[in-house]
Amino acid sequence: MPEVTVAIPVRNGGERFAGVLAALRAQTVEHELLVCDSGSSDGSPELAHEHGARVLEIAPEGFSHGGTRNLLMEAASGEHVALLTQDAEPAAADWLASLLSGFDLGEEVALVYGPYRPRPEASMPVRLELERWFASLSLDGGPQLERLGESERSCPAIELIGRRGFFTDANACIAREAWRRVPFREVAYAEDRVLALDMLRAGYAKAFLPGAAVLHSHEYTAGEELRRCFDEWRGLLEVYGWRESLSSAAQLARLRGELAGARAQLAGEALGGVRLAQALAAVARHHVLRSAGALLGSRADRLPAGARRRLSLEGRAGYAPLELDGEPTPIDEEPSTR
């Protein structure tokens, strides 16, 4: 069997899933393809079979972000498992090779991940947001290695909320040996952030490979964008205890910073006065919607369950804070059973 498995959870993946499978077929590295389908009605399992995938099937109610990825990790044959989502399409034929190179950056690298690139049809605010965030993870444009010093492994979770703790399993590769000791937690959201925190505290390292990109962007209506951000910031509250500031001065400063950053990004695009003003107005609208969702999501614990369900893009009513500030698990301990 190949040394690496590519694993994808899917439900009604449609045309974008077909694009992901075609991009995987073009990869320069031989790999096992493993798909977990949770009740598709559009032929996604059959399509995966046609591309040579081994397909696991579970009931829709059996899906969870952490649990389903643990199922894929357990079933994989490779000692490294690359994870994608059904709409995250490798941007180049060397995507998998680039991800795997991250394990050579240092000892105990357990997690490797790459950036999202906006799809060609992405709106300007979405494009700028993705480009700016992933550029901030590598200021020199090269691979980045993150690990915690021994004295840092008991630091509060909230201290790892930014770049140091960021990880995405929509475009990632995981060493199964490390996963056997530190698996995904059974959480409703932000399972990738939690895994990164647990891995770093256990003494493992993570690597960011700017060249291992996938095409992955979403266009939402105004209401969907607010609800997506509600889910995202509820996750940050559950994982880190993070609350967005209600201060109008802080919100205004954030908006000014977003507009200044967008203006700098657009400086080389030769936009005229009217077009530049329209672009900045679109960025401002996008930011205001995201801020509204963030303010609500970071106070999800204070809302009734019915309100959380209506505000959630996933329709999730719950609020489940995690206790992540206990003692870290050293690398040489027995595998976790959580």
General description of the model:
The protein has 11 helices and 11 strands. It has helices at 14-25, 44-50, 65-75, 95-101, 124-136, 176-181, 191-201, 222-240, 248-266, 273-297, 305-311, and strands at 4-10, 32-37, 54-57, 80-84, 89-90, 109-113, 116-117, 144-146, 171-175, 205-208, 214-215. The radius of gyration is 20 Å and the shape is globular. Helices cover 41% and strands 13% of the residues. The protein has an 8-stranded mixed beta sheet with strand order 3-2-1-4-9-6-10-8, sandwiched between helices. It folds into 2 domains: 4-215, Spore Coat Polysaccharide Biosynthesis Protein SpsA, Chain A; 222-311, no CATH class.
Fill in the keyword field for this structure.
338 residues, 3-stranded mixed β-sheet, Spore Coat Polysaccharide Biosynthesis Protein SpsA, Chain A, globular, 8-stranded mixed β-sheet, alpha/beta
Outline of this structure?
This protein is of the alpha/beta class. It is 41% helix and 13% strand.
**Approximate strand percentage:** 5-15%
SSE string, helix = H, strand = E? EHEHEHEEHEEHEEHHEEHHHH
Low-confidence runs (pLDDT<50, min 5 residues)? 333-338
Total beta strand runs? 11
Output the radius of gyration.
20 Å
The name CATH uses for the topology of the largest domain is Spore Coat Polysaccharide Biosynthesis Protein SpsA, Chain A
